[in-house]
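Backbone-to-sequence.
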């Protein structure tokens, strides 16, 4: 949420490109980033500042700019956790987290990603 808090999408692009350039220098050609989870559950500690924010439109915009920066830096970029690691409430069991809620509500939350 750190980059998203700036409300400056250009910074997401620049961060993506700078990271790509560093990874290329280290010999990598692929990055499993960015995290495109919408941080909708403040009780979930797994996502935190790795998310661009708690609004789908913001996450979508910043995610797309970050990816463009990575691609302009000649790095293969794979966005991850879409569409919902941030939503489930963590449990102490070893079961997989379950996303609770009605399907229409979930789809409305993620529809903005289709526009990028």
């Amino acid at each position: 949420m750190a980059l998203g808090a700036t409300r400056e999408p250009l910074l997401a692009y620049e961060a993506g490109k700078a990271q790509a350039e560093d990874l290329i220098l280290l010999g990598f050609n692929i990055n499993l980033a960015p995290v495109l989870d919408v941080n909708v559950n403040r009780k979930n500690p797994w996502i935190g500042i790795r998310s661009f924010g708690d609004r789908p439109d913001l996450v979508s915009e910043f995610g797309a700019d970050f990816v463009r920066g990575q691609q302009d830096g000649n790095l293969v970029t794979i966005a991850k956790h879409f569409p919902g690691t941030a939503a489930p409430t963590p449990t102490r069991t070893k079961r997989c987290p379950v996303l609770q809620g009605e399907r229409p509500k979930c789809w409305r939350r993620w529809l903005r990603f289709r526009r990028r």
